[in-house]
Amino acid sequence: MVGLYEFKSRYEAVKAVETDKDKIIEDLMEEVKRLQEALDDEREEMDNQRMLVQAIKSNSKRYQCEIAEMKRIQFNDEFIQDGQKGGRSAARLLIQKVERYIQDVHHNETSNVQYKIRVYANVRGLARTYRDNNIISEEAIFGSFIQGFNMEDVLCDFVDAGDGKECSDVKIRAGKK
Questions:
Q1: From which residue to which does any coiled coil extend (predicted)?
Q2: Which of 56, 72, 117, 168 could form a disulfide with 161 if both were Cys (CB 3.0 to 4.6 A apart)?
Q3: Are 147 and 157 in contact (CB under 8 A)?
Q4: pLDDT tens across 136-166, in order?
Q5: Which of 52, 73, 94 is the last residue in one of the domains?
Q6: Distance (Å, rounded) from C-alpha 52 to C-alpha 102?
């Protein structure tokens, strides 16, 4: 026959196991709660990042459209006539204008915006046009202008797109991809 002391001892052992089981369940519930909160935070961050990417894509398309519209714009004749010095001045001025534009659009987010300035042109045809219109006396001056533009800043590239009618358009479209 089992005595009272043995029942009490067995009861205490079962009670300890139940207490441990309850503690494990409480710890697991706390861990699930913590993980759920972390998951919610990550989902919110992911949603924010998704919205940011969509906004950037939308703005990028708008900038590309504006840039495509600018493809017929020419540099001031004075820059071209000044050769290398004019190319450097044109690059500096263009960088200033782009940075001002980015600040106007992005306000406090300018440090996150990356850009590169590329000018695509039929260099030989454009040099000939400048010479034929007495803007420059010789085509080499336009070559010096391009050299100065390219040397002024790593952000600036003046690219010879070739002498076909649509060569610049092809380069611009390729740059958008």
A1: 25-59
A2: 168
A3: no
A4: 999 999 999 999 999 999 989 999 888 766 6
A5: 73
A6: 16
Beta strands 117-121; 156-160: pairing state: parallel
User: Are residue 122 and residue 111 in the same domain, yes or no?
Assistant: yes
Mean local confidence (pLDDT), 33-57: 85
Write out pLDDT tens, residues 92-106: 998 888 888 888 777
Residues 164 and 79 in one domain: yes
Q: Cα–Cα distance between 149 and 175 in angstroms, integer?
A: 20
- Tell whether the model's pLDDT for residue 4 goes beyond 90: no
Number of domains in the chain: 2
33: amino acid identity, one letter: K
Structural domain of 138: 74-176
CA dist 94 and 145 (Å) reads 14
Which one is predicted more confidently, 141 or 120?
A: 141
Phi (first) and psi of residue 158, to 5 degrees: -105, 115
Looking at the fold, whether 82 and 138 belong to one and the same domain comes out as: yes
Shared-domain flag, residues 13 and 86: no
Supply 67's token pair. 């840039």
Cβ-Cβ contacts under 8 Å for 94 (sequence gap 6 or more)? 117, 156
User: DSSP character for 136?
Assistant: S
